[in-house]
């Protein structure tokens, strides 16, 4: 078991997770308001950093903006290329309060983003300005989650280096609150049926416009979160080929985080899962293996 892989039971931080999920949606939507569109929604994501999660540089007017969740000092840093800076404290507070404080900080810097102020990909979508339900923030738990993301990003990055075809960055999607990496075969996919809660079908159509194999980590699916892998469209025989990992209810492959963290070689355990599930998808869908 490696001490580098933090341990965090989902049940011990569910309320903080749900609040942080909404906070990342707010910041992600602000990035989306300014960033030029990129295929598969790659322009809306966040990225793990040495302090937390960042929008990276986002263009606005004739400058750039970045916003970073700092899980060391527990602040949301807002910075502009003209030297402006503001902070919002990460502490127990409602989503509504965080939303108001963040927009006020941006307004002080001359920024007034036009966003859809309602969360996506959640069953109960309370408008941010009205959300007094989600109000928890355990700083220690948020920091452990970020450190889980750092380990996941490191290994996913190594796995990404093994593929020379079209592939996404390793990035954090705030809709489902997962760290994701996706490979593409180059072939157009059948139109996705949609079905994500509070998410228009056309969003899914763009995300899944081309045949893919996707991998990632999210704080669910296991006692301490889980790694996942799936293919779209799922090729015939994929569940049988990946039977060791395939979850029929989720219709994707799942590897509990705790299985990785408790193994003698966590990196090797996770890489084996990623390689095996990718090979199954690529073989069964007849991908060009020269990519």
Residue share in helix:
25-40%
Beta content: 15-25%
What's the pLDDT, averaged over the residues?
96
Distance between the termini: 35 Å
Number of helices: 7
In the residues, how many domains can be counted? 2
- Counted beta strands: 12
Residue ranges: pLDDT <50 for 5 or more in a row?
A: none
**Principal-axis shape:** globular
Largest sheet: 6 strands, antiparallel
- Structural class assignment: alpha+beta
Task: Compute the CA-based radius of gyration.
Answer: 19 Å
SSE string: HEEEEEEHHEEHEEHEEHH
Describe what this molecule looks like in 3D.
The protein is α+β, with helices and mostly antiparallel strands and 291 residues long. The chain has two domains: 10-130; 149-284, no CATH class. The protein is 33% helix and 22% strand. Strands 1, 2, 3, 4, 5 and 6 form a six-stranded antiparallel beta sheet that branches. Helix 1 runs parallel beside helix 2 (95-108).
Summarize the structure.
With 291 residues, this protein is an alpha+beta fold. Helix content is 33%, strand content 22%.
Based on the model shown, name its key terms.
2 domains; 291 residues; single chain; alpha+beta; six-stranded antiparallel sheet; DUF5996 family protein
